[in-house]
Amino acid sequence: MPPPVADRAPAGARVTARPPALPAAFAAPSSTAVISEVYGGGGNSGATLTRDFVELANAGSAAYDLSGFSVQYLPGAPSAGSQWQVSPLTGAVAPGGRYLVAQAAGTGGTVGLPAPDATGTVAMAAASGTVALVSGTAPLTCKTAADCASDTRVVDLVGYGSAVVREGSGPATGASATASVARAASLADTDDNAADLSAGAPTPVNAAGETSGGEGPGDPDNPTEPGTVRVHDIQGTTRVSPLDGQAVTGVPGVVTAVRTTGSRGFWIQDPSPDADPRTSEGVLVYTGSAAPTVSVGDSVLVSGTVDEYYPSATTQSVTEITAPRTTVLSSGNALPAPVVLDAASVPGGYVPSAGGGSIDALPLEPAKYALDLYESLEGTRVETADTRVTGATSSYGEVWVTVEPKQNPTRRGGTLYASYTDQNTGRIKVMSLDSTRPVPVANVGDVLSGTTTGVLDYDSFGGYSLQATRLGTLTDRHLKREVTREQKRDELAVSTYNVENLDALDDQGKFDTLAKGVAVNLASPDIVSLEEIQDDNGAVNDGTVGSEATLKRFTDAIVAAGGPRYSWRYVAPQDGKDGGEPGGNIRNVFLFNPARVSFVDRAGGDATTAVKAVRTKKGVTLSASPARISPLDESWSDSRKPLVGEFRFRGEPVFVIGNHFTSKGGDQPLHGRYQAPARSSETKRVKQAAQVNTFVKSLLAADKSARVITLGDLNDFAFSPTMSALTAGKALKPLISTLPANERYSYVYEGNSQTLDHILTSPGIRRFDYDVVHINAEFADQASDHDPQIVRVRADGPGHGHHGHH
Question: pTM here?
Fold first, then answer.
């Protein structure tokens, strides 16, 4: 939203004293605020005035604060179905002053009221009815004079004509199309309507002392009649309003939801929609730093400026009315029925293409594309039912669900991200507008049972989101963290694990949870290739590059969790050269269990020296170990360099390459305004993958049966050009593609289960068992945002000719 502005009182605002206690019931006559005049004939045939009104007066010596009060109307002869109609009040009545509440207009009459101090929409009857001044805005429920007399919220009450509900011996008489009932100039209140009020020509007076005909049609900044523009005119048939940047006056709608934190504002929806499915009937009214003063169910007129707000340069926009001036006409109105979002209503297409350009100007096709449907519902009430969670509840109180349960389901309840061309249209982010009822803590596969109702919004973090006014209840499906099997004696177990910026300053709980993942869930692999180990003081930027304290804490925690005492190897980066969190000096690290596997140390590996394959009579070795692949090549600038190590297992060499390719940051979002979205970060990853592929081929050129395991967080998908570059020439086999399709994921982003982490093996590895161990990505409570992976390789000597299995 636009930047917040400092809170300030509106121009001309007056601060008035509130009575010290709630006023007594009207059984005790009021010596302060009273209903001084009631007229229900406005706009009737023969009338001069164009609309009904209720006038209040203050007989006291101090201002009478009306904040939170209302004027309410009941028909003279109420039926079982009759309801009190509410008109909220603001401001105050000055001592000896008047306060004018305008009500509905008719088609007759020629003279307008003076500018009203409050406006309702009640069509009062000319000859008979009851009006009450009420401390509060909840509708009264009394239908008899006795019941209303005992309701302590009623400050004053006037029944006129033949009204059943009245004060005293009888109602005030003589009201008609041309006559009001009014108190004497003394404002005396004896709690007897017949005695206190008499009929006469209507004489409305407002707080400024103005009378009819003196001020013309009223204040254009605070209209009491709808203007010519409706919400669907503002929203238009594309993503951008045809009225963007223009002022609008008196846009009518019912308040459907209010947001009191963050980007404050409220949503209105026109209860009289047009026939065009492309035009949304809802819109956000943005109030900035000012808390909204309206309530759900208020019928309002909003004036302000139409704006298309872009949360970021690549997102779609939110259509909103800014710098609003709002008139509340009535309260307690029914809300428009929500649009149901489900598998039947959401189309199969995701979003139109503009050849990489902006889709802003394309006419919406809500029957064809999911994002066009959601845009056509921007700001309107929607409802989902029994939705499965596809992205666990985040620390921001957001949860992703799907309204299309059969769309690419994973084995554990998520929604698989299958390809760039097959987007999951049913994903919706759910947030709560009710601070007393936050989004429940949910894991993937859980269900939000029953209906979730709210307003469809758009933000930069995931696109279309359901701002819930009513949340379904959580059905816990008891998702379990997986535990992989232990490797056999003749299996070398190698794992990859992104431990999310681990450093020695992190709390012990994070170390303990990650350690349990290694010792228990991964069953203590022989080699663990770690990504995102930071230097010992994390984000402190003081030249520190070592990770000894971080790794000691981590390996101690693994022992405490029942795992082996791991040794470690890494090549420390040059300060500030490897990207990641500034000052963190992120790097790849090998842990290994020296009781099961040995590390071949060869000097010479440092931050800037490139490792080479060395051909010997006994096969291929490394020029240095541990070492880095082409660290000075431009493809690795400001990025983590691959770590290479030579291990021996049961006398045979195994080469392990730990990777952490450059992130997808900077790519255009799937839900953004540019379609198809550009993947600008991909260029660098493809170059990085080519460097690793070239090095693997150099090992295989020296020994075609060399056993090479390449693994890590590649920040890209199995179907990506990055993977094609890494596997070129069949140098490496991606193991993720050996799993059933519904298990090919290790990371969940915006409700999509996807794979960024990978293990790949060279042709010399023929017998293997591969597993993604789901312990983090699907859970609200996670030590890392990645799931680890493991491969168990049988210790066949070279050339044994076994066929792979998994």
Answer: 0.73
